[in-house]
Amino acid sequence: MSLTLHHCHEARSMRVLWLLHELEIDFELKVYPFTELHSDEYLRVHPLARVPALEHNDQVLYESGAIIQYLCELYSPDQLGRLPGHAERPAWLQWLHFAETIAVHGASLVQQHLVIYQDEMRSATVQKLERRRMEKGLAMLNQHLSGSEYLLTRFSAVDVAVGYSIYLARFFTDIKQFPELQRYYLSLASRPAFLTSLPKEGDSHIIFQQDFYTGPA
Ligand SMILES: N[C@@H](CCC(=O)N[C@@H](CS)C(=O)NCC(=O)O)C(=O)O
C-alpha cells in the first residue's frame, strides 16, 4: 500500500494531514511552499496545482472532501466515517461539505490580505462581504453546537473538516463572539492529531505570519 499526501502548511491539505494522524496509518508527506506548486512535476499530480492531492496506489484524488470520505470508507467506516444506512450518514455528508461553505470565504480573505499585496488592488467591499458571510456560517455552527461536544453524537471526520475551516476563519474574525463554537474549536485544537498537523516551530513557508488580519469594520 502506498499513500502520499501533497501538502502546504496551513492550507486545506491540513484537513487530510490531521485525518491521517487521527487514523494512525503510515503515509508519505510531501510539503511544498504555497507559492511553488506550479512545477511540471506537481502539475502531473494536480492539474490545477492546488493542495491537497492524495496518491493512493495508482489513484489520485484532489478534493479534500472526497479524500476524507475515501479515507474514512477505507480505514474507519464506523468510527470517523458514517456509511450509507447509518442514521447519521446524511448529516455526516452535509457537514463534510459545509466545511467548504466556511472555507471559501476564508480562502477569499487569504487572497485579499495575503496574496494581493498592493493596497490599491484590495477591496474593502469584498473583505467586508466575505467576512460577514463567513461569520453567518460560523453563527449557524455556534447555534448547532449549543450543548453538543461534536457536530454528530461523537467525534468523526466531519469535525476535522469543519475544524480546519474554523482554524482558517480565526485569522480573520474573533471567534470569541461565538462561545459554543470557540469551546468546540479549543477542544478540537487540543487533540494530538491536530497538533501534529500544524507547522512546527521554525518551519518555513507558513501561510499566516500574523495571528490576526484586521479588515475594514
Ligand atoms: N475545494 C478544494 C480547494 C483546494 C484549494 O483551492 N487549495 C488551495 C489551498 S487552501 C490551493 O492549493 N491554492 C493554491 C492556488 O490556488 O494556486 C479542496 O477542498 O481541496
From TrEMBL:
Ranges of residues in domain GST C-terminal: 85-206
Q: Which Pfam families match?
A: GST_N
Q: Which domain of life is it from?
A: Bacteria
**Keyword set includes Transferase:** yes
Keywords, ordered alphabetically: Transferase
- Show where the GST N-terminal domain sits: 1-79
Q: GO molecular function, one example?
A: transferase activity
Tell me what this protein is called.
Glutathione S-transferase family protein
Tell me the organism's taxonomic lineage. Bacteria, Pseudomonadati, Pseudomonadota, Gammaproteobacteria, Oceanospirillales
